[in-house]
Amino acid sequence: MELVSPNLTALLNETLGAKLVNASGSLSNLAKLPASTIQIMGAEKALFRALKKKGSTPKFGHLYNSTFIARAGVKDKGKISRFLANKCALAARLDQHLINPTNRFGLAMKKQVEDRLQALASGEKTDRNLDVMEEVLQELKEENLYVESTIKQKKEEEV
Q1: In the chain, how many domains are there?
Q2: Residue range 83-99, pLDDT digits in tens
Q3: Of the candidates 7, 89, 122, 141, which lies 20 to 30 Å from 30 by C-alpha distance?
Q4: DSSP secondary structure code for residue 56 in this structure
Q5: Cα separation of 9 and 19, whole Å?
Protein backbone atom coordinates (compact mmCIF):
# COMPACT_ATOMS: atom_id res chain seq x y z
CA MET A 1 0.00 0.00 0.00
CA GLU A 2 2.88 2.40 0.69
CA LEU A 3 4.06 1.99 -2.90
CA VAL A 4 0.63 2.18 -4.50
CA SER A 5 -0.95 4.86 -2.34
CA PRO A 6 1.47 6.49 0.11
CA ASN A 7 -0.74 9.48 1.02
CA LEU A 8 -3.85 7.39 1.69
CA THR A 9 -1.76 4.96 3.73
CA ALA A 10 -0.22 7.78 5.77
CA LEU A 11 -3.65 9.31 6.39
CA LEU A 12 -5.49 6.15 7.45
CA ASN A 13 -3.45 2.96 7.62
CA GLU A 14 -2.66 0.05 5.29
CA THR A 15 -5.74 -1.99 6.14
CA LEU A 16 -8.32 0.76 5.88
CA GLY A 17 -6.71 2.22 2.75
CA ALA A 18 -6.75 -1.21 1.13
CA LYS A 19 -10.44 -1.64 2.01
CA LEU A 20 -11.30 1.65 0.33
CA VAL A 21 -9.25 0.86 -2.78
CA ASN A 22 -10.78 -2.63 -2.95
CA ALA A 23 -14.35 -1.35 -2.48
CA SER A 24 -13.92 1.15 -5.30
CA GLY A 25 -12.18 -1.32 -7.62
CA SER A 26 -8.89 0.52 -8.10
CA LEU A 27 -7.00 3.61 -7.02
CA SER A 28 -8.03 5.42 -10.21
CA ASN A 29 -11.70 4.67 -9.48
CA LEU A 30 -11.28 5.87 -5.89
CA ALA A 31 -9.68 9.09 -7.13
CA LYS A 32 -12.74 9.76 -9.30
CA LEU A 33 -15.23 9.35 -6.46
CA PRO A 34 -16.65 12.30 -4.52
CA ALA A 35 -16.01 12.49 -0.80
CA SER A 36 -19.68 11.81 0.00
CA THR A 37 -19.42 8.42 -1.72
CA ILE A 38 -16.16 7.59 0.03
CA GLN A 39 -17.78 8.48 3.35
CA ILE A 40 -20.54 5.87 3.05
CA MET A 41 -18.55 3.28 1.11
CA GLY A 42 -19.09 -0.02 2.87
CA ALA A 43 -22.55 0.93 4.17
CA GLU A 44 -24.45 0.51 0.90
CA LYS A 45 -26.92 -1.94 2.39
CA ALA A 46 -27.83 0.47 5.19
CA LEU A 47 -28.01 3.37 2.71
CA PHE A 48 -30.47 1.66 0.38
CA ARG A 49 -32.54 0.43 3.32
CA ALA A 50 -32.72 4.00 4.65
CA LEU A 51 -33.69 5.37 1.24
CA LYS A 52 -36.35 2.70 0.81
CA LYS A 53 -37.90 3.26 4.24
CA LYS A 54 -37.26 7.04 4.20
CA GLY A 55 -35.12 6.82 7.32
CA SER A 56 -31.85 8.50 8.20
CA THR A 57 -28.87 7.64 5.99
CA PRO A 58 -25.64 6.22 7.45
CA LYS A 59 -22.80 8.58 8.37
CA PHE A 60 -19.93 6.21 7.71
CA GLY A 61 -19.05 2.83 6.27
CA HIS A 62 -15.46 1.57 6.21
CA LEU A 63 -14.28 4.84 7.78
CA TYR A 64 -15.94 3.79 11.03
CA ASN A 65 -12.89 1.59 11.67
CA SER A 66 -10.62 4.64 11.68
CA THR A 67 -9.05 5.71 14.95
CA PHE A 68 -10.21 9.26 14.29
CA ILE A 69 -13.88 8.24 14.40
CA ALA A 70 -13.29 6.21 17.57
CA ARG A 71 -11.68 9.19 19.33
CA ALA A 72 -14.40 11.65 18.30
CA GLY A 73 -17.23 12.56 20.64
CA VAL A 74 -20.67 11.15 19.98
CA LYS A 75 -22.02 14.37 18.48
CA ASP A 76 -18.85 14.95 16.41
CA LYS A 77 -18.57 11.53 14.70
CA GLY A 78 -20.49 12.68 11.62
CA LYS A 79 -18.41 15.86 11.26
CA ILE A 80 -15.13 14.00 11.55
CA SER A 81 -16.36 11.33 9.15
CA ARG A 82 -17.17 13.97 6.54
CA PHE A 83 -13.84 15.75 7.10
CA LEU A 84 -11.91 12.46 6.90
CA ALA A 85 -13.72 11.47 3.69
CA ASN A 86 -12.69 14.79 2.14
CA LYS A 87 -9.08 14.15 3.09
CA CYS A 88 -9.26 10.58 1.72
CA ALA A 89 -10.57 11.87 -1.62
CA LEU A 90 -7.76 14.41 -1.79
CA ALA A 91 -5.12 11.82 -0.82
CA ALA A 92 -6.36 9.35 -3.44
CA ARG A 93 -6.26 12.06 -6.13
CA LEU A 94 -2.73 13.04 -5.15
CA ASP A 95 -1.60 9.41 -5.21
CA GLN A 96 -3.16 8.91 -8.62
CA HIS A 97 -1.80 12.01 -10.30
CA LEU A 98 1.56 12.85 -8.70
CA ILE A 99 4.62 12.04 -10.80
CA ASN A 100 6.74 11.16 -7.74
CA PRO A 101 4.26 10.19 -5.00
CA THR A 102 5.37 10.86 -1.44
CA ASN A 103 3.57 10.48 1.85
CA ARG A 104 4.22 14.07 2.98
CA PHE A 105 0.76 15.28 1.95
CA GLY A 106 -0.84 12.34 3.77
CA LEU A 107 1.07 13.08 6.96
CA ALA A 108 0.03 16.74 6.79
CA MET A 109 -3.61 15.73 6.28
CA LYS A 110 -3.39 13.32 9.21
CA LYS A 111 -2.21 16.20 11.40
CA GLN A 112 -5.09 18.31 10.07
CA VAL A 113 -7.62 15.66 11.09
CA GLU A 114 -6.06 15.39 14.55
CA ASP A 115 -6.15 19.18 14.89
CA ARG A 116 -9.79 19.15 13.80
CA LEU A 117 -10.60 16.57 16.49
CA GLN A 118 -9.09 18.84 19.13
CA ALA A 119 -10.76 21.91 17.66
CA LEU A 120 -14.20 20.31 17.81
CA ALA A 121 -13.64 19.42 21.45
CA SER A 122 -12.31 22.86 22.41
CA GLY A 123 -14.00 25.16 19.89
CA GLU A 124 -10.76 26.51 18.38
CA LYS A 125 -10.10 27.37 14.73
CA THR A 126 -7.92 25.18 12.51
CA ASP A 127 -5.48 26.00 9.72
CA ARG A 128 -6.80 26.36 6.18
CA ASN A 129 -6.17 23.41 3.88
CA LEU A 130 -4.62 25.66 1.23
CA ASP A 131 -2.01 26.95 3.67
CA VAL A 132 -1.06 23.46 4.83
CA MET A 133 -0.73 22.08 1.29
CA GLU A 134 1.33 25.11 0.18
CA GLU A 135 3.67 24.54 3.13
CA VAL A 136 4.22 20.88 2.17
CA LEU A 137 4.71 21.85 -1.46
CA GLN A 138 7.30 24.44 -0.47
CA GLU A 139 9.18 21.83 1.60
CA LEU A 140 9.23 19.47 -1.38
CA LYS A 141 10.49 22.22 -3.66
CA GLU A 142 13.32 23.04 -1.22
CA GLU A 143 14.38 19.40 -1.16
CA ASN A 144 14.12 19.13 -4.97
CA LEU A 145 11.49 16.39 -4.69
CA TYR A 146 8.80 18.33 -6.54
CA VAL A 147 8.74 17.97 -10.32
CA GLU A 148 6.33 20.02 -12.41
CA SER A 149 4.85 18.49 -15.52
CA THR A 150 6.24 19.57 -18.89
CA ILE A 151 2.81 20.92 -19.90
CA LYS A 152 2.77 23.38 -17.00
CA GLN A 153 6.36 24.42 -17.72
CA LYS A 154 5.54 25.12 -21.39
CA LYS A 155 2.53 27.26 -20.39
CA GLU A 156 4.70 29.32 -18.02
CA GLU A 157 7.31 29.83 -20.75
CA GLU A 158 4.65 31.09 -23.17
CA VAL A 159 3.45 33.71 -20.70
Answers
A1: 1
A2: 999 999 999 999 998 88
A3: 141
A4: P
A5: 11
